[in-house]
Amino acid sequence: MATKKVAASGKFGPRYGKKLRVSYNKSYEQSKTKYTCPNCSKENSVLRQSFGVWECKNCGKKFASGAYEFKVAK
After folding, report:
1. Do the Cβ atoms of 56 and 39 come closer than 8 Å?
2. What pLDDT shows up at residue 31?
């Protein structure tokens, strides 16, 4: 189990270097964050389904966006 200090990259232990582990933590946290749906405006409802595919659990609409972070095109 990962500790709070090292977060998700705790599973790597001392391997692979600090820069890679910090980068992994950043992308992991972005992919697990819940975002606001641009279609129904419900907060914390858009979740990542797969690589670049995001879905609103409220209205069921699917979006194509960033791989790790949900970005709405303006």
Report:
1. yes
2. 87
